[in-house]
Amino acid sequence: MLDPRLFRDAEAFAALRKRLAAREAGPELDALLERLRALAERRRAAIGEADAAKAELNARSREVGELKRRGEDPAALLATLGPVSARAESAGAAAAEADRTFADALLYVPNVPAEDVPAGDATHNAVVRTWGEPAEPQPWHQPHWDLGKALGLLDLERGARLAGSGFPLFVGRGAKLERALIAFMLDLHTREHGYTEVAPPFLVTRETMTGTGQLPKFEEDLYRTSDDLFLVPTAEVPVTNLHRGEVLLGEELPKRYVSYTPCFRREAGAHGAETRGLTRVHQFDKVELVRIERPQASAAAHEELTRHAETVLQRLELPYRVVLIAAGDMGFANHRQYDLEVWAPGARKWLEVSSCSTYLDFQARRMDMRFRAARGAKPEFVHTLNGSALALPRTVIALLEAGQQPDGSVRVPQALAPYLGAERLEAGGD
Questions:
Q1: Catalytic: 246?
Q2: Known catalytic residue: 352?
Q3: Which residue ranges form the domains of the chain, and what is each CATH number?
Q4: Torsion-angle region of residue 254: left (phi > 0), alpha (psi -120 to 50) or beta?
Q5: What is the pLDDT of the chain when averaged over all its residues?
C-alpha cells in the first residue's frame, strides 16, 4: 500500500502518476488514481468543515458559560448549539466515510517502480548478467515430460486423473528428487546464508493474503476454502506476515527467513503448449527466502538475496541469466524485480525459476509492521523482500534436460548427489 499522503499534495501526486505510468497499466489505473485524489480532497474538505464547526461549537459553549457567570439568560445561544453540533458530526462522518472508501480503493494501486526499472512491457526486460554456458540442443535431447516418463520419475497422466490437469505426480526417484532438492536448498540457506527456517501453515486468512498484496485484486487466482481460508500461493504470504501488527526493535533487524511450502495457484487462463509437463502447474513445491530490513539496508539486501538464489543454481551447475524486469511486466507489489532464468535444452528455451523482489514499505503498510531505530524513537515502517530459492518444477525441468546423456540417463549435480543417494538417474531406478 502506498503512503496516503502522496494523494494529498498536488506535486507529490503528479510525481506518483509519472512513476506509475512506467507500468503502462492503461486507463483503469489512471481513473483509480484520479478517484483517490478526489477522495483525498473530499476528506480534506470534510475535516476542514468538521474542525471549523467544532471550533465554532467550542466558542459558543464558552460564550454560554460567560453568560451564565454574568447571570444572563443563554437560552437563545443554547438553541444555536444543536445545528452547529449536527454540522460537525455530519462533516466528521463524511471524513470517516471518505477515509474508508480511500483505504479500500488504495489496496488496488500497485507499487511504484524503482528509478532504474525499465518502463514498458516484457519486451523491455534487461539481462544484467549470465552464468555458465547454455548447452546446444542435441538430436538426442528430449523434453522433460518424455524424459521423466521414460526414467519413471513422472506420471502426469495419473496426476491428472487424481486432481485434474496441472497437478503433477512424482514417483520413485522423481519423488526423491523433489525431497532432495528441498533439503539441499534449506540446508544451503540455513547453514551458509544465515536464514532461520520456518515451517508455516499452508492455509491463511484473508487478512494475511491482503498483507502481502494478493488480495483483494487477485482473488480469482487463489484457491479458497468454504470457511474463507486460502491455500498459500507462496511461502512469502505466511512468512512475511509473521510480524504483522508488531513494532520490532532496531537491533532485531534484519530478519532472515527461509521456508518450504507447497504452492497453489489457479493460473487462470493458462492453456496450450506452454503449460505442458511441469512448465505451468497449479500445485508445486518451492523454497522461499524472506527478508525484513531497515529502509536504508533494503537495496543492498535485494542484491544479496538475489545472489543467494543464484548460488543454488551455481551449485546445481545450471547455466542461468539474471533479468531486470520491466515495470509493465513486474509484480503488482514489486518495487524492483530480478528473475533468474535457466536454460532447458530439451524445451530449447529459458525458464524462470525465481523472482527476487523488493517492496519498500508497500507490504509493511498493509500489515502495519514497523520498527524503532532506537529505544524511544518513533516507529517506522520496515522494508520487505523475498525471492524463490528456488521453485522446483522448472528447476527439475532444467536438471533433467541439461543433465541428460546420450544413453537416456541424467547426470546428477555433485552437490545434490548426497541428498539423492545417486549420481545418475536411470530407467529402472527405485
A1: no
A2: yes
A3: 4-106 (1.10.287.40), 122-425 (3.30.930.10)
A4: beta
A5: 93
